[in-house]
């Protein structure tokens, strides 16, 4: 297993399969049980270092670490020195001095987890919990886990990812992971919301959502922030919804068993209608549950094998 | 001052000759020179170049003396073979008045390691709103001839037109930092496949090329010369080439780092490689080298941009743009241009000394630079040993800053000595070989 999880592209097929299988195991060990705690990471310290607000991701990692009996410390931008301009480096040195074994980092700057992992400031394992517009590998893992539970092995499955690919770390991680798992990914977005060079990515690209949905095994809707509108990425929220939103008509273009995913938080009425979000084929709530299992698997695989000094 | 006899130096890479320096000027040039009492230097195997002239240096003083001072920056310049540097205007306060440019000029004179030619800001406070007092800076003791808002683009077309016109009165030149601001808001690296993958905001080539194209047309329209700073893209090369074919008065510079490094280096998010304009693709690098060889690009200018450690020891987005360049410039040029056969040493002398001095209008006047290596000319010289290979170690830099992108790289060539009007401003090691006797 890799030492740091910085990009979904770092995971080989074996690594990715191991994480998903381990997540299955975590689900089996905790689902439906009164006591959901495993003793696996007792004595290990996991720091949630959140330079950007994200209650759901932080909570998910916190629960995952606690269910593995790790000690969890939350550093978040509000109400700590992070909001007072303390540098990434000084924060890292502080965590190192406190003896963190794993650092889960969310940062608005793309590549910040790379800097943490590679600049020699800390020895802890680094898990990227979302960096700027770069990646969010555990989100891709939980998406793959969710789809695998419903669809079986993902090799050859057709996954459509729709929305603001340009600014989406979720899309980047999903494209890389799903390519590793052998799925066929199609990105759908207005041309303004696709990055330059997307034609070199291991996926297809389309501007036509209706077209792409036929034959899809799953569709993943990305959050579209309305402020993109003022930056002329698209003319209006209404036009975006009409061309790239998922409503019941579009859902009916897909095979009846096709899944609907969304990493959240949703803009109901923008990229997805309430009807679709709450439909029987929507696995959006399940994604949240599965996020905990996947993060348990990641923390377990990265931290359980490492040496610690405290066990005397 | 004791006369200096440099023996068997290959002037501009030609056959070995002796160079006699006396009273600050080149007093003799030829085979088997002699001079009683002269200090001799055995320069066998060394190349003698005219002292290099940098048209684009950030000395950071006044304002950011934690990053560089005129003293340390010009010391770095001397180590790199430079005898004159043009100090960019983006200091604090901005060099937009006669007072500030005279201060920088005077600090250069006091330091004595290289002549400092201040660059004046085009607009007040680099704000791009109204012209700074360009005439006052031109008439000041600093004698400013190059004006630039470098770091920022003079993007208002009307203001740029007026600036180009206005400086004609005193033979000035506008050096444009070509960057269309709207196309580069928040830009972090070259826009391309890699920026999309890394999730870093792209700095598209077209943002440079659109301004280059506009400005060569504006310059042609008003009959003024324009200079393009740190040209970085293949498309800009094509525009400048076309403009020159039409006889338009445009000159352009390329930095050493754009001749050597590519955007692939950004993949690890190490801010040492963060620079503006950004590192481009291998295709761009090849076009820049070719353009420098064929004269489409007139000069190499370092864009030496010192930053304190904390400005680079952070996440990419938070890091400052810029790289050191003075001490490594000649080595990078040797590596990319000479050792590849694209340029000979006479070409190097042109691109790093004669041409930049002409553009900056410091090739004439009281203390001229970029003059031929000839009898009667000021003894501004650099002696270069092209046979060495050095692993770049930032801790040995004369600069106060350490932000070199070449750390750990092996680069060819060493500047063995630099002379400013006959006075050694840099000696890599003890090179003087005793006192000469009579001619034999």
Describe the structure.
The complex is a heterodimer of chains A (312) and B (440). Chain A is an alpha/beta fold and 312 residues long. Chain A has two domains: 8-136 and 290-303, Aspartate/ornithine carbamoyltransferase (Rossmann fold, 3-Layer(aba) Sandwich); 137-288, Rossmann fold (3-Layer(aba) Sandwich), CATH 3.40.50.1370. Chain A has twelve helices and nine strands. In chain A, the strands form two sheets. Chain A has a five-stranded parallel beta sheet. In chain A, helix 1 packs across helix 12. The two termini of chain A are 26 Å apart. Mean pLDDT of chain A is 92; it is low at 308-312. Chain B is an alpha/beta fold and 440 residues long. Chain B has one domain: Alpha-Beta Barrel (TIM Barrel), CATH 3.20.20.140. In chain B, 27% of the residues lie in helices and 22% in strands. Chain B contains eleven helices and 19 strands. In chain B, strands 1, 2, 3, 4, 5, 16, 17, 18 and 19 form a nine-stranded mixed beta sheet that branches. A five-stranded parallel beta sheet of chain B has the order 9-10-13-14-15. Chain B has a three-stranded parallel beta sheet with strand order 6-7-8. In chain B, helix 4 packs across helix 6. The model of chain B has no long low-confidence stretch (mean pLDDT 96). The A-B interface holds A 87-89, 107-112, 114-115, 118-119, 131-135, 166, 169, 172, 195-198, 200-201 and B 188, 191-202, 204, 268-270, 310, 313-318. Chain A: It catalyses: carbamoyl phosphate + L-aspartate = N-carbamoyl-L-aspartate + phosphate + H(+). Chain A: Pathway: Pyrimidine metabolism; UMP biosynthesis via de novo pathway; (S)-dihydroorotate from bicarbonate: step 2/3. Chain A: Belongs to the aspartate/ornithine carbamoyltransferase superfamily. ATCase family. Chain A: Catalyzes the condensation of carbamoyl phosphate and aspartate to form carbamoyl aspartate and inorganic phosphate, the committed step in the de novo pyrimidine nucleotide biosynthesis pathway. Chain A: Carbamoyl phosphate binds at residues 56-57, 106, 136, 139, 264-265. Chain B: One of its GO terms (molecular function) is allantoinase activity.
